[in-house]
UniProtKB/TrEMBL annotation:
SUPFAM superfamilies: Actin-like ATPase domain. GO terms for molecular function: 5-oxoprolinase (ATP-hydrolyzing) activity. Residues 21-197 form the Hydantoinase/oxoprolinase N-terminal domain. Residues 219-503 form the Hydantoinase A/oxoprolinase domain. Residues 598-686 form the Acetophenone carboxylase-like C-terminal domain. This is N-methylhydantoinase A. Transmembrane segments: none annotated.
Length: 691
């Protein structure tokens, strides 16, 4: 592969003065491409996603974007990708055939789980079936105590006796997860080595290589998830790397992971579970950076795509993070941006429930066939169709590349409205009101339910449909304002442009005494050494400018769950930090309770120079509108001016109603609202009496 100075192939935090940075985010409907150029400008491009072969849309989009810029692939010095392959593999249950080897007596660990129903009052509620089936689960006689000491040694002969049985099962991946391996992984690694040497499966994974934390159910579930998605993610990234090489792109392929940082394609193939929240993390990281740029203290990141809405809380420029969560009903134990996802997007389908009431989502028309107005064979009314019929969308999207079929959407809406006993206008308004209520509940989930006053929050609205709904959400929730970034439709790709390389390391500590500073420091030093070695390997030896954050998981003695806070050698300072964090999260603290340490963490990052886009020249006054069209707001039609967003002046308030169009999205400003473009190109939306 050809290399050039400053390229991703030779480093991660050094860049030439002439190179291009590219970020590609694959969504359910569109694949978004952002190209950062040396002069500070950012070029954006969108192509339709190709779910059956996502890499085809990635390469096609890059080729088209470079052609539009008259640029050569050889000038790409950084290439970042957010992928939905892992997520879609899990959602569609099309992953690998996974086998599990565990400690004798614990073969039903994944089936038993928490012994609780997902929904307490829903008698028929069921947890998803384990991804490692009972008939593909084997036991070995061994035992490690919770403190890491050996209670019963491994019998190598017993493990070898399992080889033929496991090999005959024809599994794609074998996960080895032994009891208390987080405290001592010697047994687990020995079994994995024996099975790997015997060639029982193409891949053998030791669970502690994926998650080295206590809680056997979550740790095993995370490792099995990794095994389930690994073959598909691995083969996808191999294909993509080859196609980019054939195209002549010299840059190394970096992959967005769930924690908001980047890992190499090599690491992503091994630790594929880290990409389960890949795409949505980019948008949150971008929103956090923009919040810092604009000096916004509390921001709700609001990313609406074709199938879902991803919502996150950002405080003082930092997104909330979590160390454990759940995806599709399966526990996931690893650091990730704390995002609440709901089934509400531009492709969400409107339907009638058994009582005749109007419902919208969570099912979606997706990329294929998509909304009726896309003309791809869609037959069900979607949120996008409602926007079109209410005048919020014009005759086309993507700068005229996607023509919208209003006639087909209106014909189907007439039938649907008749079923509801409404006229077309009221039915379309009803679709938007229902989806607004759904989205509002999602916003409250990450704000009000965490003790945050929504009246102090700014909505950062992006995604292809975010700017269409920002106006409704500001009014529905009483938010201070909404901010729409310069390129909302490709915000996730924009966020990835400046994402740092990052990896997280965690280990159990040999004590539960949070005041045992020397013992805790020793574990943190070991983690820091591992982190530095990882960064050096990940970047080919160029980890200049890396930072290491030392963190610990603490809880009051007797609590079941912990909070992560920065490490402080002083027990008094550590206690103050934990009490303050506990008070912020739960509304109280307990200064008299004994403090217990659960785990030590080290986060290693390599930041990159920010690719802040040049604002460019703006007209000195409000231009004449491109056109006017009838748009329906609150039950009445308004003759509404339509502008190109790029032609709106900076610093001059404009009163709604108005529509601002751009390649990647459409901004709606309702009557009684005011918008203003700032010096960075961000559009601020407020109520007229608050402007």
């Amino acid at each position: 592969m050809k290399q050039q100075p400053g390229s991703g192939a030779t480093g991660v935090n050094t860049f030439s003065a002439l190179g291009l940075r590219i970020a590609v985010d694959t969504g359910g409907t569109f694949t978004d491409i952002a190209v950062s150029q040396p002069d500070g400008s950012v070029f954006v491009w969108k192509v339709s996603s190709s779910p059956s072969s996502p890499d085809a849309a990635v390469v096609d989009g890059v080729v088209e974007a470079l052609a539009e810029l008259s640029e050569s692939p050889e000038r790409v010095e950084r290439f970042v990708h957010g992928t939905t392959v892992a997520t879609n593999t899990l959602i569609t249950r099309t992953g690998s055939r996974v086998g599990l080897v565990t400690t004798a007596g614990f073969r039903d660990l994944l089936a038993i789980g928490y012994q609780s129903r997902p929904h307490l009052y829903e008698a028929t509620s069921r947890r998803p079936a384990p991804l490692a089936a009972p008939e593909l689960t084997w036991e070995v006689t061994e035992r490690v105590a919770a403190d890491g000491s050996e209670l019963r040694a491994i019998d190598d002969a017993e493990v070898r006796a399992l080889v033929a049985e496991i090999a005959a099962a024809s599994v794609d991946v074998v996960v080895v997860s032994l009891l208390n391996a987080y405290a001592s992984s010697t047994h687990e690694r020995r079994v994995a080595d024996l099975l790997r040497a015997a060639g029982v499966a193409p891949s053998v994974i030791a669970a502690t290589d994926v998650s080295a934390e206590m809680r056997e159910f979550e740790r095993t579930s995370t490792a099995v998830l990794n095994g389930y998605v690994q073959p598909k993610v691995g083969s996808y990234l191999e294909r993509l790397e080859k196609r980019l090489t054939d195209l002549g792109v010299p840059a190394r392929l970096w992959v967005m992971q769930s924690n908001g940082g980047l890992i190499s394609a090599r690491t992503a193939r091994e630790q594929s579970v880290r990409t389960l929240l890949s795409g949505l993390a980019g948008g949150v990281i971008g929103a956090a950076r923009w919040a810092g740029l604009l000096g916004l203290d509390k921001v709700v990141s609001f990313d609406i795509g074709g199938t879902s809405t991803d919502i996150a809380l950002i405080r003082a420029g930092q997104p909330d993070e979590m160390t454990s969560g759940e995806i599709e009903g399966y526990p996931l134990r690893m650091p990730a941006v704390d995002v609440h996802t709901i089934g509400a997007g531009g492709g969400s389908v409107a339907w009638r429930d058994s009582g005749g009431g109007l419902r919208v989502g969570p099912q979606s028309a997706g990329a294929t066939p998509g909304p009726i107005c896309y003309g791809r064979g869609g037959e069900e009314i979607t949120v996008t169709d409602a926007h079109l019929l209410l005048g919020r969308l014009g005759d086309s999207l993507l700068g005229g590349r996607l023509m919208l079929d209003r006639t087909a959407a209106e014909a189907r809406m007439q039938d649907f409205a008749g079923e509801l006993g409404l006229d077309v206008d009221k039915a379309a308004e009803g679709v938007l009101r229902v989806i607004t209520a759904t989205m509002a509940r999602g916003v409250r989930k990450v704000s009000v339910e965490r003790g945050v006053d929504l009246r102090e929050c700014t909505l950062m609205a992006f995604g292809g449909a975010g700017p269409l709904h920002a106006s409704d959400l500001v009014r529905e929730l009483g938010l201070r304002s909404a901010v729409i970034p310069p390129h909302p439709g490709i915000a996730s790709a924009m966020g990835m442009l400046d994402a740092p390389v990052r990896s997280d390391f965690v280990a159990a500590v040999p004590t539960n005494d949070a005041t045992a500073s020397a013992e805790i420091e020793s574990v943190l030093d070991d983690l820091a050494g591992r982190a530095e070695r990882f960064l050096a390997e990940e970047t080919g030896g160029n980890s200049t400018g890396s930072t290491l954050d030392r963190l610990v998981d603490l809880r009051y003695l007797g609590q079941s769950y912990e909070l992560t806070v920065p490490w402080a050698p002083s027990p008094q300072l550590l206690r103050q930090a934990f009490d303050r964090t506990h008070r912020e999260r739960y509304g109280f603290d307990d200064p008299d309770a004994q403090l217990e340490i659960v785990a030590a963490r080290c986060t290693a990052t390599i930041p990159v120079p920010a690719s802040t886009e040049a604002a460019g020249d703006r007209p000195p006054k409000i231009p004449a509108p491109l056109a006017k069209r009838a748009v329906r707001f609150e039950g009445a039609w308004h003759d509404t001016p339509v502008y190109l967003r790029s032609e709106l002046p900076a610093g001059i308030p404009i009163t709604g109603p108005l529509i601002a169009e751009q390649l990647d999205s459409t901004v709606v400003i309702a009557p009684g609202q005011v918008c203003r473009v700032d010096e960075h190109g961000f559009l601020h939306l407020t109520a007229e009496d608050n402007s």
